[in-house]
Write a structure and sequence with these properties.
The chain contains seven helices and five strands. By secondary structure, the chain is α/β, with parallel strands linked by helices.
Length: about 160
């Protein structure tokens, strides 16, 4: 079976990516993600292309350099997972979800109930909306191998 490419976008302040990857051990899945080192992501443009006195252009350089990676990895993805965390507003995650949707990618959204109203349009574009990373792993297991998680299958 060919490997599935899964892009993990969104908040960088928790270990949700590692949780999904660990739960998918044994599945034919290749994971990718944006650069999750916050300082490196913010400062890559000026570190590589030179300093900017204006914060707008500092951020613009970084966003453009990061977009090279993001666009390629989303375009190559079979599934795009976007997690919205509790602590910060992730406008970049919403943009990634919209970009993936525009490309016709299978989109899985992860967020808590506090974001339900704010993300209603993003949720409407998704094929699944989860509240926890384990559900993402369960979806990937089901769509790749056609089997339900043992714990949930036994409960039914």
């Amino acid at each position: 079976m060919n490997s599935w490419n899964v892009y993990l976008s969104g908040e960088i302040h928790t270990d949700w990516r590692e949780e999904i990857m660990a739960a998918c051990t044994g599945l034919p899945v290749t994971f990718s993600a944006p650069v999750t080192d916050h300082d490196a992501s913010d400062d890559c443009g000026v570190a590589i292309l030179g300093a900017e006195p204006d914060k707008f252009w500092h951020d613009n350089k970084g966003a453009n350099v990061n977009a090279i990676r993001t666009r390629r990895l989303i375009a190559e993805a079979d599934v795009v997972v976007v997690r919205f965390g509790e602590k910060y507003k992730q406008w970049n995650a919403a943009f990634d979800a919209g970009y993936a949707s525009a490309l016709g990618k299978s989109l899985i959204i992860v967020h808590g109930p506090d974001h339900q109203h704010a993300l209603k349009e993003v949720d409407a574009a998704a094929l699944a909306v989860c509240s926890e990373p384990r559900q993402v792993a369960d979806i990937l297991t089901y769509v790749i191998e056609g089997r339900l998680p043992e714990v949930r299958a036994a409960a039914e």
